[in-house]
Amino acid sequence: MNWGDELWDRYDSVVSQVSQSTRELDSWYGNFFKERSKIENDYARSLRKLIKTYTPKEKKKNREDESTQTSGFRLILQELGYQAGQHELLADSYGKDCSKAIDDRLKEVKIEMKKNKKEAESIEKNLNQSYKSLDSTKQKYQKGSFRT
Prior knowledge:
By secondary structure, the protein is mainly α. Helices cover 84% and strands 0% of the residues. The longest helix is centred in the C-terminal third of the chain and has 80 residues, at 68-147.
C-alpha cells in the first residue's frame, strides 16, 4: 500500500476538518483579537483618564519652582502617558492588522476550498464515467466471449 491509498476515499473527512478549522479561525481567534483590542483600548483610555485626574494643577507658571516630589510625580505621569500610547498602538494592531490578516486568510482558504471542491467533483465525475465505461466494456467482452 502506497502513501495516500488510505486517503483516496477520505475527501469528505478532510473537507470537514478544514471547514471546522476555518470556522474556528473566524469565530474563536478572530473574536479573541477583537476582544483583546477592546481591552487594550479600554485600558489605554483608563490610563489617560488617570493621568488627567492626577496631573498637578499648574498654578505656578515656572516649573522650576515646584518641589522635586511634584516634578518626579509629573515624570511618572508622563511615562504612564507613554504606556497608554503603547496600549493604544496594541489595540490598533490587534483590531486592524490581526483582524485583517485573519480575514485575508479566511478568504484564501474559502477560495482554495471552492477550487478543490470543483476539482474533486470533476475527478469524481471522471471516475464514475470510467467505471461506466469499464462496465460497458466488460459486458461487451462477456457477450462476445459467450458467442464463440
